[in-house]
Amino acid sequence: MTQDDYLKLAEAGGAGEVLTDAEAALLVNKEFGFEASRIEILHEAEVAVEPEGARYVSLKQVPRRPIYASTDWNYVRFNVRAGGTWYWEMIDGSLYEVCL
Q: Closest Cα to residue 93, out of 69, 71, 66?
């Protein structure tokens, strides 16, 4: 999710509710079946920053609280600890692996 899209969701005039870590973990568990006790909710994400005219892309840490507005408008950044750590984002009800 781009930072602009995240900010639109976060600033949706009260439509988006910031979830507690427990609420976000239960939502992820319900939607995707990950064991809730193994889910770690994150409050930041790395986004690509491409300065104008630059020949490189750098990463920047930005705040990303878990937000729920509806089943197709939401965001949760989380890790799952299970024989290693898996990195994920739930964006608008879909699951995306985060490649680090």
A: 71
**How many structural domains is the chain composed of?**
1
Which residues form the domain of 51?
A: 3-97
Task: Please write down the HEC assignment for all residues of the chain.
Answer: CCHHHHHHHHCCCCCCEECCHHHHHHHHHHHHCCCHHHEEECCEEEEEECCCCCCCCEEEEEECCCEEEECCEEEEEEEEECCCEEEEEEECCEEEECCC
Cβ of 21: how many Cβ atoms within 10 Å?
A: 16
Pairing of strands 67-70, 73-81: antiparallel
Spatial distance between the Cα atoms of 53 and 40, rounded to a whole number of angstroms: 37
pTM to 2 decimals? 0.83
Q: Could you list the mean pLDDT of each consecutive 10-residue stretch along the chain, which spans 100 residues?
A: 84 76 97 95 86 78 91 92 89 89
